[in-house]
Here is the input.
Amino acid sequence: MRHRRSVNDEMSCKELVELVTRYLEQTLRPTDRVRFEVHVQDCSGCAEIIEQMRGTLTAAGGLTKEPLDADARARLIGAFREWRNGR
Ligand SMILES: [Zn+2]
Here is the structure.
């Protein structure tokens, strides 16, 4: 039984995808950041997504300027769903 709420709480892949832009923009709360990084260490799929996302944001110049626009976010979530369905 695991009822502890702590930074060790497992973050779901879905939750991670929702936070990935904030992670890359470094606006994540420290607690979420730790949970995020713990998840990525155990989840190569999410690690791939983050790398893709980093590329997308860098290409769009989004990392240093505006937050990710809704369009790019939708594409990310679409890519993530494809990844899940493909395994
Ligand atoms: Zn994951």
